[in-house]
Amino acid sequence: MSILALTSNTLSSPAAAGQIEYTSPIFAATPIGTQRGIVPTQQYYRLNSDYVGSNVNTAQSIFGVGVTLSSSTVYEIEMVVAFNKSAGATSHTFSIGFGGTATVNNMMYEAVATSNATSYATSTASFLQTLQTAASQQIFGAVASATYFNMIVVKGTVSINAGGTFIPQYTLSAAPGGAYSTAAGSYIRINPLSASGAATNVGTWA
Description:
The chain has no helices and 16 strands. About 0% of the residues lie in helices and about 50% in strands. It has two domains: about 1-40, no CATH class; about 45-195. The strands form three sheets. Strands 4, 5, 8, 10, 11, 13, 15 and 16 form an eight-stranded antiparallel β-sheet that branches. It is an all-beta fold.
C-alpha cells in the first residue's frame, strides 16, 4: 500500500499553477494562475434505510449519529433531510438544531423547507429561514395531521471553538402520538474551510 503524506506548512506566496499544498485544516490546489482553492475533504453520512425516531418532545438525533469536529476550525455544512410519520394527531411544532459537546463561536445557515400531509411529491408549502445559532429553532408549526411529510435543505458554515461531537437534531414541542422517521437517502456532509478567529480567505481575494 502506498501512502502520500504531506506535512502542514504555510501556503506558498505567490501560489503557482499545478501546486498541491497542505496547511491544517485544509488541502489546497492551484489549477490556474495564482487562483488557489480549497480541495474539499468531506465527512459524509447518508441513510440507506429509514431511521425511526421516538414519540417524544425532547431533542433526538436526525441520523442516529453525530460527527466529531476539531477545535478552532471553521466548517461548511450541507444537509438534505426528509421526515415522515403515519400516526398521531397531537398538535406540535417541528424544530431543528445541532447538539453535542462541541462549542460554537458563530454559525449561519439557511433552511429551505417544504411540507404536506399527503406525500413528498405533493409538498407545496415552503419557506426560507436564515438562522445564526446551533440551538433548536422552529421550522414547522401547528402540525396536527396523523400523516405528515416534510423536507429540509440546510446550507451554511459553523465556527467551532472547543472540539467535540456535533449532532444534527430535531425537537417536537409535544409527543404527536406517532414517531417520525428520517427517510432513506437523507444525508449530511461537512468539510473544514480554515482556522477560526479570522475571515476565511483562500484564493485571489483582495
